[in-house]
Amino acid sequence: xxxxxxxxxxxxxxxxxxxxxxxxxxxxxxxxxxxxxxxxxxxxxxxxxxx
Length: 51
What we know:
This protein is α+β, with helices and mostly antiparallel strands. The protein has helices at 2-5, 9-21, 41-50, and strands at 25-30, 33-38.
């Protein structure tokens, strides 16, 4: 994510924490990595329309 967004890791971490707290995404640990998944159906519908 860091290289794709060209942002510091700390910034991305803060944004992900806010998205998790809002119930938009969920993180699942896989070894040393955490994979994030979109869990909010309303946000999923909005993104589907946009893209």
